[in-house]
Design brief:
With 364 residues, the chain is an alpha+beta fold. Helix content is 25%, strand content 31%. Strands 5, 6, 7, 13, 14, 15, 16, 17 and 18 form a 9-stranded mixed beta sheet that branches. The longest helix is centred in the middle third of the chain and has 14 residues.
Length: 364
């Protein structure tokens, strides 16, 4: 096939951008290495939309994406608590100072209000920051929405199509896959997640320093049973988070273990750490570990995503490095990506975004 754009990767990043580009009138081919799209990071998300997640420079992408996700029915209101121990007062103050100016909806709570929102919390947890608009995301529905939109707009998806070779010739790319197929495109878009730097090197581009890190989640059965009204709970120190899911509890030790790009698997030590940290917070009893999994979250060195044309390699563009916030920022990010790649003007969804923050030119 010959296309204007060949997007490598069909997770939430590749699917959302493909939908936007195809709706913008471009011919689009999406190449996915796995048997089905969304197998890696997208399919293993903890599935929440949280305004402060990723830091102040990610907040504009998150806030811009919120109305689209709410109006589309992809969000279910939950609320979030960043909780702090006695002695963490400076961390709480710093958090408020960093995020209040971003427009995130947050407020400081004392011990009494913390107890009301988190029954069974241990005495040493004395402060919290409350985010009332935090919500669960229906990740599967959102990913399916973008896949449907891209197909309806004429984009083609090819699975089991791991890219094995790239060659630029006559103003277009020759793309070889490991199953022997050959495709052509004017522009390659790197939405390869944990494999983003490998793809860049294959194209002769300077890697952006995007590194994958393993994140572990375990599903627990708890006594007393978990209320589905419990908020998302995160440690102000970044050592854990947990949330209810269908009568069970999802808990993570908030691990970030450097990893090669691979099919990530959970390690027993990480699951044990998650349980131990949970037991430091609440007096609930863990009855069983029912399920556990791990995924890779990929970041550039500065923890900002990488969107736009490569400054040195003609016809090579980036849409990668979206860490753990790629799903919750996907509507605004994909629209911004479309505008950058097609040369379109900003619109209501992207008018608050500073594209220079995310430009690959910052690594040149």
């Amino acid at each position: 096939m010959t296309a204007d754009f060949a997007i490598v990767g069909a997770g939430i990043a590749g699917a959302s951008l493909a939908a936007e580009l195809a709706e913008g009138g471009a011919s689009v081919l999406v190449l996915e290495a796995e048997d089905e799209p969304g197998y890696h990071a997208t399919g293993r998300s903890a599935a929440f939309w949280e305004e402060c997640y990723g830091g102040p420079e990610i907040v504009p992408l998150t806030l811009a994406s919120g109305p689209f996700l709410r109006d589309g029915g992809f969000l279910h209101q939950r609320g979030a608590l960043y909780i702090a121990r006695e002695g963490d007062e400076e961390l709480v103050t710093d958090f408020m100072q960093r995020f209040v100016p971003t427009g995130a909806t947050i407020q400081h709570l004392g011990r009494a209000d913390l107890q009301k929102r988190l029954p069974g919390v241990r005495h040493e947890w004395s402060d919290a920051i409350w985010e009332p608009v935090c919500a669960d995301i229906d990740v599967a529905a959102l990913h399916a929405h973008y896949l449907a939109r891209m197909r309806a707009a004429g984009a083609q998806l090819e699975c089991r199509a791991r890219v094995s070779g790239l060659k630029r010739d006559g103003g277009r790319w020759e793309i070889a896959t490991d199953r022997g197929a050959a495709h052509h495109a004017a522009t390659i878009v790197n939405a390869a997640g944990a494999w983003a730097d490998e793809l860049a090197a294959m194209a002769g581009a300077q890697p952006a320093g995007i590194e994958p890190y393993r994140r572990t989640v375990a599903q627990l059965r708890i006594d007393p049973p978990v209320s589905n009204d419990l908020p998302l709970v995160l440690d102000i120190r970044g050592r854990f988070y947990f949330k209810p899911e269908s009568g069970r509890l999802w808990v993570s030790p908030h691990d970030e273990v450097p990893s090669e790009a691979c099919d990530a698997a959970p390690e027993e030590m990480a699951v044990a750490e998650a349980i131990a940290r949970l037991e430091e917070v609440v007096d609930w009893r863990v009855e069983a570990v029912e399920h556990k999994w791990a995924g890779l979250r990929s970041f550039a060195k500065d923890r900002r995503p990488v969107y736009g044309y490569d400054p040195a390699v003609e016809g090579f563009a980036w849409f990668a490095g979206q860490g753990g916030f790629g799903i919750q920022t996907s509507p605004a990010a994909a629209r911004l990506g479309r505008q950058l790649l097609l040369g379109e003007a900003r619109d209501a969804l992207t008018e608050t975004l500073d594209a220079e923050l995310y430009s690959p030119a910052r690594f040149a």
